[in-house]
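EI: anyone free to look at a 304-residue chain?
SC: sure, send it
EI:
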Amino acid sequence: METIFNRLTQAQRSWRIYHHDFPQSATLTRLWSELPGRLLSFEDHFMTDAMAGRLPNYSFIEPRYFADRLFNRLPNDQHPPHDVALSERLIARCYDAIRNGAGWKKTLFIITYDEHGGNWDHVVPPPAISPDDLRHDGFAFDRYGVRVPAVLVSPWIPAGTIARAPQGRPPFDHTSILSTLRTLFGPFAPLTKRDEAAPDLVDILSLPEPSNDGPRSLPLPAPNASGSQFQAAGQAPATNVHNAMAAMADRLPSGTAAVVEHVAALNESVPPGGIPKAQGLSANQALDKVKAGLDKFLNGAGLS
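SC: here you go
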């Protein structure tokens, strides 16, 4: 699949993916030849890049999905059963680095989610523009799903803004981020009919000057985690997310030299239902598989 990262490369715009343990974005085969130099450790690079004003045109941040045995850090991804306060800490750390960094006056920080987390929504999902002419299992993807939270942070946004899409346009959805990138850093072609029609977020940045600085820092939740908690988290059965990551990491290539051949081999070996998830693993065993697959890919690409 073509990705927004490929589009940004074509437009000669910069981008990076800052990750903790396993970057799910590394499983996108169209990115494999572009990831060297753009796939960076969050702990080693994001905070210093943000403070120094060295962030690229587009940064994508992936949270920690597994318990980190080396540094005694619990997951901060908000997937059940993980502690939500730890992801609040991640968001606050990102805000503090951006807010006090050299690039604050020209930054839009977007906090959003891929899923609704099981929360009930009283609004019936409205019709949506089908992204393409494909009909997977007979479904046209012609309606939206349950709403998810989205928070926009920028000195260009008036305090207390509650954003709504312009009248007569589709509602804001995930592809509004893609539409915004196309408006700011294009021109480049949309990925699908969905993001072609999606309203962008640019009009929300409506102040004449970047004057809404907000608080200089946010309180950092600091949940106490004992050694027994780390041990229990690692020994617990792997979640569906962990199992899926272990299976995906196992199919990463050895670097970027033979990407075309590797993709062809995957096309021959993946069953019609997709890549089967790993089964019967503990969280630590799933993490070991993830590290092995990622190390194979990064070392083969001359990275670490």
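EI: The CA atoms of residues 168 and 199 lie 10 Å apart.
SC: 👍
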